[in-house]
Amino acid sequence: MSIKLLRQAFNGRQALTPMWQHHALKDRYEVVIIGGGVHGLACAYYLAKNHGINDVAVLEKRYIGSGGSGRNTTIIRSNYLTPEGVLFYDESVKLYEDLSEELDFNVMFSQRGHLTLAHTDASLRTMRWRAEVNQLQGVNSSVIYPDEIKKLAPYMDVSDRPRYPVMGALYHPPGGIVRHDAVVWGYARGADRRGVHLHQETEVTGIEVEKNRVTAVQTSRGRIKTGTVLNATAGWCSLIAGMVGLKLPVETRPLQACVTEPLKPFLDTVVVSGTLHFYLSQSDRGELVMGASVDPFTSYSQDSTLSFVEGLAGHVLELFPSLAQVRLLRQWAGLCDMTPDYSPIMGFTPVTGFLVDVGWGTYGFKAGPVSGKRMAELIATQHTPDLIAPFSYDRFLAGRLVGEKGAASVGH
Ligand code: PYC
After folding, report:
1. 87 alpha carbon – ligand 1 mean position (Å)
2. Which of 47, 307, 322, 387 has a CA that sits 20 to 30 A from residue 195's CA?
3. What is the mean pLDDT of each run of 10 residues along the chain (412 residues)?
4. Are 85 and 343 a contacting pair, CB within 8 Å?
């Protein structure tokens, strides 16, 4: 134990150094980022670090990481279906690989491998398709069969007993899990150290536009003049876009998740089943972190339900019958902004100075680093980086959709 830690233990809270500072709200910032989750914080961090732009405010209506960044199930992977998606998420995996060093903060990225199970001929075909696309982009994925799956997940029933027996899986060794709070706090601390102002408990109530150009943001703590606003919210992205009169092709749905009591380590891969609608991993603390597909209705409710855990438990027990006596510790819900093609919306919009990094459905956390880095580049250079060009707002007008439904976590 370090001397510093010992001193803190004896002195109590006074000795703790805050991770970031509190600032008075200035009446003008060069860039205002709405949303204090991984996307907004990463963008602020890279703006300051890579481009020397630190006259930046990050506005968060609650506390840092209180939205999707604190509610996701932390799965990191790049085994997508389209070349555009694979290349984009692959850059994020690479950034995650170096993130602890980059932020000088242990984000506990564990590349334990990711299995997407196939229980039908049709899903096996999609796994083969994804494996081909992944390999062509240099991403490590391949289709494996029950005998190999059993070696990776010995407690999973790969026999003919389950109602939908496992026929194969897309195996993606670089995939894994990360400690989501650490990622958010690391970016927040890194941005703060470079001069960015993080404003918690600061809700955006309006955005002023003159002659189709953003001029100011109104907040619960006062008005800020600015020419650049980034909407980096999840769950509320259409409401924020509505403040400048912009309609987004987004439907907001709750996504529920839960965690069990800690168990001895027995599962060191991430397991996803689209057919059975669940994903499962074992955290460093031994808890099983599990989730399903988005709720089948639009809502801003973050309540979680008994019917969700009943349905999920039934499906998980099909493949992991030995978990029958394991107790649930807690359950929660987050909000997912679903787009028609299951890809995000990033970049410029028809309103000058109003930028978006939204539409993150159920896949936002894994994209935090790459989105932050590339949106910072876009803001600094006023040019859209090639990597995120396919996800532009105008693709919906041009009919250039990036269909990722076949690779979204579970069948939604
Ligand atoms: O896209 O990997 C994913 C995912 C897992 C849980 C929700 N989304």
Report:
1. 17
2. 387
3. 71 76 98 98 99 98 98 98 98 98 98 98 96 98 98 97 97 98 98 98 98 98 98 97 98 97 98 95 97 93 94 97 97 97 98 98 97 99 98 96 88 59
4. yes
